[in-house]
Amino acid sequence: xxxxxxxxxxxxxxxxxxxxxxxxxxxxxxxxxxxxxxxxxxxxxxxxxxxxxxxxxxxxxxxxxxxxxxxxxxxxxxxxxxxxxxxxxxxxxxxxxxxxxxxxxxxxxxxxxxxxxxxxxxxxxxxxxxxxxxxxxxxxxxxxxxxxxxxxxxxxxxxxxxxxxxxxxxxxxxxxxxxxxxxxxxxxxxxxxxxxxxxxxxxxxxxxxxxxxxxxxxxxxxxxxxxxxxxxxxxxxxxxxxxxxxxxxxxxxxxxxxxxxxxxxxxxxxxxxxxxxxxxxxxxxxxxxxxxxxxxxxxxxxxxxxxxxxxxxxxxxxxxxxxxxxxxxxxxxxxxxxxxxxxxxxxxxxxxxxxxxxxxxxxxxxxxxxxxxxxxxxxxxxxxxxxxxxxxxxxxxxxxxxxxxxxxxxxxxxxxxxxxxxxxxxxxxxxxxxxxxxxxxxxxxxxxxxxx
Length: 452
Known about the structure:
Oligomer: single chain
Number of domains: 2
Helix content: 40-55%
Organism: Paralvinella palmiformis
Strand content: 5-15%
Shape: elongated
Strand order of the largest sheet: 1-5-4
InterPro entries: Innexin
Function: Structural component of the gap junctions.
Protein name: Innexin
Number of helices: 14
Radius of gyration: 36 Å
Distance between the termini: 99 Å
Keywords: Cell membrane, Ion channel, Ion transport, Membrane, Transmembrane, Transmembrane helix, Transport
Order of helices and strands: HHEHEEHHHHHHHEEHHHHEE
C-alpha cells in the first residue's frame, strides 16, 4: 500500500487557472464530489453487507449465502406489503431495481463527463497560437512577486506573449472584403477564427455551453435510470418530504426501497423449486442520500453555469462594456486621463486587443487582482504606441497625454515683437520652454547692460 501511495504521489499534477470559478466548480469540485461518492458506494458494497435476505427455514448457511449473492447480482423488485406477490408470468407487476449494483460506475461516469469540457478547452485553446494557461500562470507569479526586478520581468514576459499572439493574428487578415468581415465580427461575432480576433472567446463560450449541456443531460439520465414518476427527481423528494405524516413513510421510498423482493429457482433432484424471499438493502439508505445531494448539486451547477454564460455573453458582445472595462484599467494605470471619454481607447480595443485580447484581460482579472490587470493593460498600451499600433502625433496618445519614456515635442519657434523693448533689452536670448501652459518663453539676460 505504501508503494502504491508513493507511485501516485509522483504522478505530475498541474493546477490550471485558465478559467473562472464556475468552470472550476464543474471540473474540480463536482468531479471530486462524484469520485468521493463512488469510493463510498464501493466501500459499502465490498466492505459491509449490501444485501441481507430472509431465507426459508430449511436453508443452511451455504444456501443463505447463495441467496444473498444471487439476489445481489439479479435485480430485485419493490412490492408494497399490501400487494400480493405476482405470478411468474406477471413481469409487468415487478418494478425492478437495476442500478444499485452499478452505483460506483455511475458516479465515475458522471465525474468523467464533468471533466470532459475542460479538456476540450485545454486541447483547443493551444491551437490559437498562445497557451492561455502559461499567461495565467505568469500573471499569478506577477501577483505574488515582491521584488521590482522580478515583477518587471514577469510583466515583460506577459506583454510579449500577448503582443505576439495579437500580432500573429493580425498578419492572418487578408482579402478584399476585410472591412466587411471586421464589421460583422465586431458587431455580431458571426465570423469566428484567429483572423477575426474571437477564436479564444468563442471557444470559451462553447466550453460554457458544454458544461450546461452536460449538467442538463446528467439530470435527464438520472431521472431515466431512477425511473421516477416525475421528470424531476428532486421535486418528488421534496413532495414526499412535505406530504408524509409519519417519518417511516419517507423512509419507504419507492425509488430507493430498503426492503425488496427476490425470485429465484433452485433445481433439486430433477425438480425446479421456486422461492420468493424478502431482502433488506441497507446500502440504499446511503445511496438515496448521495443521489439526493448529487441531484440538487447538479441543479445548482446548472443554474450557475447558465448565469455565468449569460454574463460572459453580455460583457463580451457589448462594445460599450468592453470599452469601459479597458478604459477603467488604463485610467488606474495612469495611461489615460480620468475624465477622458472611453472612446479615446477605441482603436486600442477594437483594432489591437479585439475580443480575444479583452477576454484574456478579463480572465486574468478572474484569477488575480485589479492591480495586476492594470499593470498588464498599461504595458500593452505602451507596446501599442511603441509599435505604432495606435495612431499618434508627435508621440502623443489620442487624448494628448504622453506615455512613459516619450520625449517632449520640440519647442515652438520664437515669436518676436516688432517693437524694440525699453531699457535696451535687445540682447535677450530665449531658452527652452518650461512646460508653460500658455506656451510662453522665458528670457535670460546675456550681458551686464541687460541687468537693471
